[in-house]
Structures are given as structure tokens and as C-alpha cells.
Amino acid sequence: MKFLILIAIATIGFAFTVQQQKKAAVWEVPAEYKSMENPLAKDAAGVNTGKMVYMKHCRSCHGNAGLGDGPKAARLKTFPGDFASAEFHAQTDGEIMYKSIFGRDEMPNYETKIPSKKERWAVVNYMRTFKK
């Protein structure tokens, strides 16, 4: 019973924190990235590679399922986003890759942390698996 109460308190605390965070401003993505196509096939091997990179670099803020509920998310001023949303999935792969790698504001730049173009696109493929 105590365990269920703790879970309820944690859930309410997270919901309150998300409500306090502002929504990110609209991203300005260069046209070349908007039209850029993902060169990787969306196969199991590529998705698994993307998952490994995501878990290492992205999970702490964006959460295991891309809902913006990672352990560091509550400390951010801006909600880190919901990768399972229709709004997220309406973006092109190039837009997602640009935002994920170049970052802005509280979203760090990952050009040196993820130098492999293959791994960058693999993360996009993995993020595409998040659904509600």
C-alpha cells in the first residue's frame, strides 16, 4: 500500500512539474534539413543501433518512451517534448535529425558526442518507433 502511495505522489509531482514547464518555441530548421531524407533503412538492426545511442544520450531528459519524462526532465525550464505525439511524427526525418543533433537552448549540441552520421539517422529511426 505504501508503495502505491509513493507511486501516486511521484506521478502527481511529475505532472505538476510538466505543467510548470513552458512549451518550446518553434524551431527554425534550415530548408536543406527539412527536405533531407534518411539514408538508412528502417530495419531492426538500425533501430537497435538507434536505441543504444538514444539510451546513452537522450533518455535522461526524454525518457524511455520519448514522453519527455526522463530523470533530468523535471529540472528543465522547457518541456523536452513528446516523441509519441502526432505533432512529432508530422516532422520530416531531416527536421528530427537537425533538432536532435544541433540542439538549441537547453537542448545540447551532439555533433561531437554523436559524430557518426549513421548513428544520427539510426536515432531518428528509433524515435519513429515511439507511439501512443
Task: Outline the structure in words.
With 132 residues, this protein is mainly alpha-helical. The chain has one domain (2-127): Cytochrome c-like domain (Cytochrome Bc1 Complex, Chain D, domain 2), CATH 1.10.760.10. Helices cover 50% and strands 0% of the residues. α3 crosses α7 and α6 crosses α7. The model is unreliable at 3-18 (pLDDT under 50). It comes from Labilibaculum filiforme. GO terms for molecular function: electron transfer activity; heme binding; metal ion binding. It holds the Pfam family Cytochrome_CBB3. Residues 45-131 form the Cytochrome c domain.
How are the SSEs ordered, and which strands pair?
Elements: H1 2-20, H2 31-34, H3 44-57, H4 59-62, H5 86-89, H6 93-102, H7 117-127
Helix pairs in contact: 3-7, 6-7
GO molecular function: electron transfer activity; heme binding; metal ion binding
Pfam families: Cytochrome_CBB3
Protein name: Cytochrome c domain-containing protein
The biggest beta sheet is recorded as: none
User: What distance lies between the first and last C-alpha atoms, to the nearest angstrom?
Assistant: 29 Å
Helical amount among residues, as a percent range? 40-55%
Mean pLDDT: 89
| Unreliable residue runs | 3-18
Number of helices: 7
User: What general outline do the C-alpha atoms trace?
Assistant: globular
How many distinct folded domains? Answer: 1
How many β-strand stretches? 0
Radius of gyration: 16 Å
In the CATH hierarchy, what is the class? Mainly Alpha
Report the CATH topology name: Cytochrome Bc1 Complex, Chain D, domain 2
Overall SS class: mainly alpha
CATH superfamily, by name, is Cytochrome c-like domain
